[in-house]
Specification:
mainly beta; 5-stranded mixed β-sheet; globular; 389 residues
């Protein structure tokens, strides 16, 4: 959840045909990232028209397709944004089970030993407007699901074993109902932290960030930043929570995004009391930053990479990268990997200056975040899944 891959070695050089252990086609279209447990890689995908939703399981060593299911169908699916897919939320996995999510189209749990469906939910509505994108997370016995669309946005905690709703928190109507519907939607993925002895779900919704008691759904504190379409995931480092505002619209100013550092120990509206800093120069809307040794590294959707001090927001360096970015940077084996939409990956060494290590190009559209395991990289592109060595 922090963009750090727990590996000691990772690939530095590749193309679509060199240093590739295997390459297999992926059915349908999906921008969700691969998840790995043991010798299994799981992906979600969907038909481009949104009428079928797939789960795919591959053998990590060989790339062999172990299981494929059409887990949900839709006869009249909601429309999505042209840059989105019907399978953008990333699944989560643990020993024995994988949890897949397609927004309002359905959520399910699959037994990874026998590939049987344990439970399914198709009764959690959401008017996404631009399609689903929020990923699910696991916390103890809970599966946390965000369904924040243009009407009655909410977050719910499901019993991971049964799929039943344990709690549901609808965003406060007195705040959200006066907003135009377009400003209520969010596509973020939350994190869980501990503050003041309480486990908090940090959820940067549209308009404001909420810290829920993760076990009950009670709202402990909020920070207001305004506007909509939060995507970038919160981070937690050295006692501070870092949250992204989504797009900010101010008269006669091009839309932009803000990053906030928040002390998570407050109660109620802490906008004026617990925000430690706000930074708004080339802050990404979609890619999540990564913090390494007290420095925050981020890449704007349009390609400007920045390094700032995570405690003070002081700018350390900026460097323009090639292309546009949806995929979040990953810290792996001492380097940071930035992959743009065209599949070009810039690898840098973290530090006080921009230090290029390598540049690679897979030659395909990439919006998923790569996964690192056993010194290798699992990369999902528009049409293929790769194991790069």
């Amino acid at each position: 959840m922090d963009g750090h891959a727990k590996v000691k070695t990772a690939p530095l050089q590749w193309t679509d045909s060199t240093n590739v252990e295997w390459k297999v086609p992926v059915k349908g279209l999906g921008w969700s990232s691969p998840v790995i447990f043991g010798n299994q890689i799981w992906l979600t995908s969907a038909a481009k028209d949104g009428k079928e939703f797939y789960t795919l399981c591959y053998d990590l060593k060989t790339g062999k397709l172990l299981d494929e299911k059409t887990i949900f169908t839709a006869t009249d699916p909601q429309r999505i944004h042209g840059t989105n897919s019907y399978a953008t939320p990333t699944p989560c996995i643990e020993a024995g089970f994988v949890y897949v999510h397609y927004g309002n189209f359905g959520t399910a749990c699959i037994n990874t030993s026998n590939f049987e469906v344990v439970w399914k939910r198709e009764d959690m509505p959401c008017e996404h407007m631009q399609g689903p994108a929020s990923s699910v997370i696991l916390h103890k016995n809970l599966l946390i699901v965000h369904l924040e669309g243009t009407e009655d946005p909410y977050v719910a905690a499901l019993d991971k074993k049964t799929g039943k709703t344990i709690w549901k928190s609808i965003r406060p109507k007195e705040i959200y109902d006066p907003l135009e519907p377009v400003y209520r939607k969010s596509y973020q993925t939350p994190i869980v932290i501990e503050a003041n002895g309480k486990e908090l779900l940090i959820s940067n919704a549209s308009f404001m960030c909420f810290a829920h008691d993760v076990n009950t759904g009670e709202v402990i504190w909020t920070v207001e930043y305004g506007f909509d379409s939060t995507v970038s995931q919160p981070l937690y480092w050295d006692g501070l929570v870092y949250v992204n505002s989504g797009w900010i619209f101010i008269d006669n100013v091009p839309f932009f995004t803000r990053q906030y550092a928040v002390d998570p120990t407050g109660k109620g509206d802490v906008t004026k009391t617990h925000v430690k800093w706000m930074y708004e120069d080339e802050v990404p809307q979609i890619p999540t930053p990564v913090i390494v040794d007290g420095k925050m590294y981020m890449v704007h959707d349009r390609g400007m990479a920045s390094c700032i001090d995570a405690k003070t927001a002081k700018l350390i360096w900026k460097h323009e990268l090639k292309g546009n970015f949806n995929s979040s940077p990953v810290y792996a084996a001492g380097n940071i990997y930035f992959t743009n939409v065209k599949g070009e990956c810039t690898i840098i060494k973290p530090g006080n200056t921009f230090q290029l290590v390598a540049e690679n190009n897979i030659g395909e559209t990439v919006k998923a975040v790569p996964a690192f395991v056993d010194g290798k990289m699992v990369l999902r592109t528009e049409k293929f899944l790769y194991l790069i060595k």
